[in-house]
Fold this sequence. Notes:
GO biological process, one term: membrane organization
Largest sheet: none
Shape: globular
Radius of gyration: 21 Å
Helix content: over 70%
Keywords: Membrane, Transmembrane, Transmembrane helix
Transmembrane segments: 32-52, 99-125, 169-193
Number of helices: 11
Strand content: under 5%
Protein name: TMM33 protein
Family: Belongs to the PER33/POM33 family.
Amino acid sequence: MADSTQNGPMPGGAGGGAVQFLMANKLDTAMWISRLFTVYCSALFVLPLLGLHEAASFYQRALLANALTSALRLHQRLPHFQLSRAFLAQALLEDSCHYLLYSLIFVNSYPVTMSIFPVLLFSLLHAATYTKKVLDARSSNSLPFLRNLLEKLNANQQNILKFIACNEIFLMPATVFMLFSGQGSLLQPFIYYRFLTLRYSSRRNPYCRTLFTELRIVVEHLITKPACPVFVRRLCLSGISFISRLAPTVA
């Protein structure tokens, strides 16, 4: 979801207004730059134009840049750090803390294309929101082509967030597969399960919880059809029951 900080246009010339806006919002500007860098590195990993070896390094850079962005956003949300259980519990409620943990889970693992999409798309959405604010500070009608692209991206935000949630869910079995294929660590599935429970309980972003519900409805609809074999129906029901028991309670 886009950051909620609101800033109006600043006085000055076309370029001067944008510069003043950026300088007046240094922390937001730093996050904007790190998000743009995340998008750049993620794109060069997904599309390895510079070679497969370089793509692996861009994978790590994207996750490290995302970790930096998440840490800055967490500092913005909780500026007064305290070494206490209450502060940790409060930090774990923040989406930025979730994706700081996410970056640390995958930064040293075998590169997985699926794991880079949430980082890429979240950074793209946030960067687009702030870019529009920069354009507004520059001039109300500056760069109409770029504005049009940003508006189209914003119009598809709900679909993008659902796609991100789908990635978050299906990365869970992917981490288990990576473990058995020798490409993951023993702790990775357990730490990722903790990340997924945090996303399921998120107060700001309900899409992970919504996708779990929608997937359950689709599976239950398919297995009730007469053409579905009995053993498949029993297997799916057992899987649904197991996943439901693992789901955290949401206030």
